[in-house]
Structures are given as C-alpha cells and as structure tokens.
Write a sequence for this structure.
C-alpha cells in the first residue's frame, strides 16, 4: 500500500522573494509537486514570489478561482462558484497525496491569515498529514515599508478588510490604537473617507505591493485615486511616542 | 571622512531558526556587527534564534534592559530606567554606525510589531540610513501551531496584550471575529477569565513558544496554570466555516 504524501501549506511572504523563510525555500526547492492559487486568466502572485525556485522537474498544480465579474448561472452565487473551485482543488491535491507525493501549497503572506490555503486544509487535513509553515503577513511588511513602529506596549492592533462598510470601518478604527486595512482595491475611496471621519488621516499611510519591486508608499491623504490594486493597504501606525 | 554604516532592524521570526527569512539569514551572516536585546542576566531570545549564524568574526552588542523587579531609586520609574537603557543602546549602536560599520539589530518576530528595535529606530533613523526587514510575528506562528484558520473573508482580527484590564480585554474580544492575546506571562488567569466571560473559551487555544523546539499547544480550557512564559499567547481563531 502506498504511504500517502504530506501536505504543506507554505507562506512565501509579502512579495520580495528574499522574505520567504529559509524553511519555505527548502520545502519548495525539494518538493516536486507545488500547487498555487490564481485568478482565472491571471498569473499567480504566490508563484511569482517562488518563480526562481521552480524548475522543469517541478509538477505545478495551478488552481484557478473564478473572478467576481464572471457570469453566474441561475440560482448560483459567487460563493457557490468558490466552493466548487475549492472542492475541485482539494480533489486534485488529494489525488497527488493519495498517490504518495508530498504537495507544497504556496501562499502569499501567511497561509492561515486570509489565505486560500485554509480551504484546502479544511478539506484535506482529516485524511492527510498536514503542516502549516507560517509566512510574513502583509501588515508587518507595510509597516516596514513606511519604517514606522506599528504597535507597541499595551496597544491594540486591528486588521480590517476594506470590504467592510463605512460604519464598520469607523467603529473598528475608533476602537484600535493601530490598524491595517487590507483588501483595498475598489474600496480605497471608502476606506479613506472612514479614516478621515475618525480623524486618523494625518497618521495614515497608503502602501501598495509592500516589499515588492513595484512598492509604492505615500501618506493616505495623497492617495486620491478611487481604486487601488488588490495588494495594497492602509497602515495606521501607533501614535505613541512611548519611550521616544 | 568616514561613510557612516547602515542600520538594519531584522526580524528573525517566532522561534524556529528555519523561519527566519532568507534576507535575515543573509544579513546576519554577512554583517560583522550584530546587536540584540536581552533582559538583565538572561539569554537573548533573538540571539538564540540566530545562534547558528554567529561566528567568532561577529562583534556582538548585547543591550540589556532592566527587569521590572529591579529596585528603583527615589523619583525613578521603570519607564525612566527603560528610556535610559534605550538612550544608552542608541549611543552604542550609533558609535558603530558613525565609525562606518553596518549594524544588524536582530529582533524576535517582527521589529515593528511590539519590538524593542523601534526605540533604536526612533533615535537613530534621522541620522543614519535605516532599513527594516520584516519577520514572521508570533500570532501567525500561533495559528500555524494549532493549524486552524486564523482569520478569513471580511473578518476583523485583533491583537491584544495580556497586560490590558479584564474590561478592556472583554470589549476588544467581543468586537473582533478572531483575536490573539500576546504577553501572557502572569496575566494568563486574567485573560482566561476574560475569554470565558465573553463565551469564547470553547474555541480558544493556549500556545507556548510557537514554532520553537519547546512548543506547547492545548485548548485554553485545559491551561489552568496561573502563570505562563512571556512567550505564550491565546489564539482565538475564526469561527467561520466559510466555504468549508
């Protein structure tokens, strides 16, 4: 009987290939089967970070998820499409594992921090040995990009999604000492309005593609586009001059 | 005239030496002067993570911070002691930089996420070129240790300090979809009581020394000691079975 393979959910960090961990580097280099998510018709961001490690000897499992603008059938929600996508991905990865091959699923940032890997893990970890290798999540890369202390002492840090409503954003921002709003995309103008309405605009920064070659940073007050790339965030670092 | 050195604040990650980034590995290996913080009379946790990279050719700047149990002089607060410690550390590191030597300050986790590096950065970055290299912060290592999705979709993640009062903990926990409480130490019993009082005990985990050789995990309900190591946390992962 074949010994099943081992599933690895491996964070490759925020964008700079040198910010992946030594462990991620080793696992990707030494494991023939590497899987990753990508939007339909688009390059995979995780694969781009690991590109220098992938050789002709690697078998790549590209998992495409549907984009929100795709036409939906009658009685079909976007969530239905996603569930189908993850079920199908789990079947493909599960077949490789069942055949005795280890599979490394590479993920931008950290696998369990808003990462799609969790949907594979939820479907496979009861049948296969699975290990999660954490990665550097985007909020700390955003703080490094602006070189401002993110959170210190007894402060509360909140991580929010730009998809929240203005009121949800406002109440969460008002309650936190420091905050990072991820998933900006088309929500940039809304997030900016929420930040301004709770008087945090003067210490908020806009960070695009943190740590990557195309990184952009500026005060949020100067980020006046309506729309940002998905991989952008607003960082509101600690206001404390504690022990300055 | 001597060209001043470059200051690097380098996160070495949560404990497993293999979880430091490739960039951290390169900078520590190639930079002769390495600085780190340690409590008076105790080994440095950051140095322990990087121990395998430090050779006889490295010059080590050990920065001791006072412990809270030290006797204070009249009219002297613990904060005064810390400020003196950071001022002195900035002077020592600044002297090396001014003499033309690069200095790598290694930090557990991430340098700007509750890290002491920020106090050096605040004192030196106006005079010397400084770069922050992010690292894997403990909350994502905690989630990896228990292999539970930490936060997904549009959920809010809050990072809290165990030093907060029970009421502060309760209101922050009640407002978040997922939370991590760090700096447990002698606050474990209080944090557990707060978690229980907002009905989150059934999905809370206790994680000690995440990713390290001495890692311990268990349901928080089973962690009944009054006191935990400083490097322990409570992880309350997402309750959502979203797209399960």
């Amino acid at each position: 009987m074949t010994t099943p393979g081992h599933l690895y959910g491996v964070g490759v960090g925020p964008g700079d290939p040198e910010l992946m961990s030594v462990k991620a580097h080793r696992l990707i280099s030494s494991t023939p089967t590497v899987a990753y998510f990508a939007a339909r018709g688009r390059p995979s961001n995780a694969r781009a970070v690991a590109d220098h490690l992938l050789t002709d000897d690697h078998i790549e499992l590209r998992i495409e998820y549907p984009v929100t603008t795709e036409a939906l059938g009658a009685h079909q929600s976007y969530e239905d499409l996603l569930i189908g996508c993850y079920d199908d991905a789990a079947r493909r990865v599960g077949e490789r594992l069942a055949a005795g091959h280890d599979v490394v699923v590479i993920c931008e940032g950290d696998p369990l921090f808003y990462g799609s890997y969790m949907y594979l893990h939820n479907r496979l970890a009861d049948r296969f040995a699975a290990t999660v290798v954490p990665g550097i999540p985007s909020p700390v890369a955003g703080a490094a990009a602006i070189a401002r202390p993110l959170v210190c002492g007894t402060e509360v840090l909140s991580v929010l999604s730009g998809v929240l409503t203005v009121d949800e954003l406002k109440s969460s921002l008002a309650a936190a000492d420091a905050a990072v709003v991820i998933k900006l995309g088309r929500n940039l103008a809304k997030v900016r309005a929420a930040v301004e309405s709770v008087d945090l605009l003067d210490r908020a920064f806009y960070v695009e593609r943190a740590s990557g070659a195309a990184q952009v940073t500026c005060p949020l007050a100067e980020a006046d586009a309506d729309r940002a790339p998905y991989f952008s965030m607003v960082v509101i670092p600690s206001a404390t001059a504690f022990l300055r």
